[in-house]
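User: I'm new to structure prediction. If I give you an amino acid sequence, what do you actually give back? Let's try with this one:
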Amino acid sequence: MDHPHPRPACAPPPRLLARPARAATPAPRPTFRPAGALLPVKPVLGARQPPVPSRLPHFRRPSRNLSDSEIRAPEMSHCASIKDGSLPFRRSGQWRRSGSKPGSCPAHPWQPPGAWLPAAGTWESGRQGRGEAAAAADRGSSPDGGGWCPGGPAAPSSGPREAPGPHRGMDEGKMDENEWGYHGEGNKSLVVAHAQRCVVLRFLKFPPSRKKTSEEIFEHLQNIVDFSKNVMREFLGESYVHCGEVVQLPLDFVKQLCVKIQSERPESRCDKDLDTLSGYALCLPNLARLQTYCFAEHRPILCVEIKPKCGFIPFSSDVMHEVKHKVCRYCMHQRLKVETGKWKQISKYCPLDLYSGNKQRMHFALKSLLHEAQNNLKIFKNGELIYGCTDARSPVADWTELAHHLKPFFFPSNGLTGGSHCTRAVIRDLVHVITRVLLSGSDKGRAGTLWRGPGLRGPRVCEASPFSRSRQGKNSPECSGLPKGCLLYKTLQVQMLDLLDIEGLYPLYRRVERYLEEFPEQRKMLQIDGPYDDAFYQKLLDLSTEDDGTVAFALTKVQQYRVAMTAKDCSIMIALSPCLQDASSDQRPVVLSSRSRFAFSVSVLDLDLKPYESIPHQYKLDGKIANFYSKTVHAKDTAMMSPRFKESEDCTLVLHKV
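Assistant: Good question. You get back a string of structure tokens that encode the predicted 3D arrangement of the chain. For your 658 residues, that looks like this:
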């Protein structure tokens, strides 16, 4: 029987049509009462700003300027982090939530002077802390909390966020560009650090021909905060992820700062310009200088930043390049980067060795990074970069100079003066300490413990790894497995949300693109550009790989791929602080070296969601990497075989009757 209301031929199936969302009750606008602040900036107040807690921690301004010797590093309880309104830079004896009693830590009963950042409840803006009514409004648009299915309700909080109003507490005279210095940059952002205080500002970068409005830049930065808070914190754990907040700065300050740091930028990164038109930036803790623990003799903090890259070999049946089932992406890409002049020589580092959980393989991987750091390893001492490189023009790694910097940390008073023996001993201790920290599970909170990823599948060893080649024919411990509580394990689980590989994902991306070409107004409802809220996170937990032909399935896999690519490109920051031999370790993790003890913290950086528009580029690059590797390896094998044939060219075959 014919349907009483036939659907037009050009319309999609009913399940792909959007239903109107019910209006959500707006959250009450908070009254902002800032305590003392490091920056003369106002946290961005918008529709998603959390209300100020009823009880704010009390801070006192210093009655006089403190000398460096008087500044004590705060002692951080196990798993403490920048979360729920707690402040990262309080010079206090014990970290505490708002409302806790001052001086509650027996080790440091004195009340600290001053606050270095906005008061509790203002450090992070976004969905967390908005109250049950606002959270329920976000979830209440549908029984399952909303989602991406074009047949579902509109995404919660999908309306435009309110731009910040006039700055409260903003004094342009107090923003001095000379107090800030170049810290580093990537492909899409640049970071400057304060010379004295543990805070950084992160600015977006754009090509000279591409300009964005202030509203677009604010939305971009706010999406970074929301994605870190609502998605990556849930996957990785609260203590590992620092979200920061969006701030607005005087334009004159930003322009003068841009001129000041221009000469320090690597030439290879100068193809994009710092955003100097909007004034918006992300304010974050400087994890390379953050003095998280009590340490002896006020020694500087040692920080090691590692970009581990993808830790598994694709297991999808959609992979058509056979070499991708045997060799990891990093090892294949190395050959192309050296060929194009990006780096001078191929690194012996293989991510599968680091993610193996086997200490022997992990030691080999870390030593390989120290030999050829490229952009996968940096070491900071008191916030200053002492080891690492930016491009092929960087000087050759000098282990002797590195050992000179590290000796006070690992061998403070044992008589080692120098030479090759001292260098080897220091590097060995550094590698062992980093390995132990990476295998530790320091996050005991709820976040990151309830989700179970797809599980490790596929080969556990990369055929291109020098470690694997050197152990051929021997009984080598291929994999001991990562502890499930450690950050490497959690990062690997998020990476493996790439269930189909780019070869299997690209047709699904094209399906979403065709739908958007026909219904462009649906892009916001599909949450391709945000908001990245709890509903977005819940949809990522669907690990099914059976394609039902719908746009909803395709979009889920596309979003999972974007999150997986984010985890593949993140960085891990390990902060080490020497502590007293008799210091109590009840409330903070401690790792031992041969002669020292270190309190440590672990954080994750570079957690921006990879853009939807980059998928076609990733598809082309993947094919280029696999084809180039196959071509070069085949040519090498042919070159090795050709002498054998030349030796036998003059041979004569003689046949005898039997």
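You can read the tokens as a compact description of the fold. Here is one thing that stands out. The radius of gyration is 27 Å.
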